[in-house]
Design a protein that fits this description.
Blueprint: E1 4-18, E2 34-42, E3 45-57, E4 67-79, H1 85-113
Antiparallel strand pairs: 1-4, 2-3, 3-4
């Protein structure tokens, strides 16, 4: 694993708007947050990396939501050295894990300041994105 310094964090985008959703008695809304990530390098310094971690909740006719929300945080990281492809993958996974609690906090605070019940994104102990997960030892075709 490559060593890196966490240089800071900033909010790139925050938006919230209320939707007037009429609920039937005993109807539950499924929030279904959609996460995304973008990794960028500084043009003049290959060791300086920016990772944007975002969450979006958007209403549709098929799946109404009580609100629309977008939140994006950007972490600034400086690597000790230029990474190999495997080290770079490990760094992105670790940096994402480091940023996620900040994103959770931003979403909770944003919804609380909108005077609705604060939304607490789930605690995730492992990788957030499916592509970050290791291949299972018992993948189809590997069982004897």
């Amino acid at each position: 694993m490559i060593k890196f310094d966490f240089k800071g964090i900033t909010v790139e985008e925050l938006s919230y708007n209320l939707n007037r959703v009429k609920l039937e008695p005993n109807q539950r809304l499924d929030i279904k947050p959609q996460f995304s990530r973008q990794v960028r390098k500084a043009n003049d310094n290959a060791k300086l990396n920016f990772i944007a971690l975002s969450v979006k909740i958007a209403t549709t006719e098929a799946e109404p939501k009580p609100f629309n929300l977008t939140a994006s945080v950007v972490g600034i990281f400086e690597l000790a050295e230029e990474p190999s492809a495997q080290d770079e993958r490990s760094f992105v996974i670790e940096a994402t894990k480091l940023l996620y609690p900040y994103l959770r906090s931003v979403v909770t605070n944003l919804t609380a300041q909108a005077y609705i019940s604060p939304l607490n994104l789930p605690v995730i102990s492992g990788p957030i994105f499916p592509e970050d997960r290791d291949v299972y030892a018992f993948a189809p075709g590997n069982v004897n």
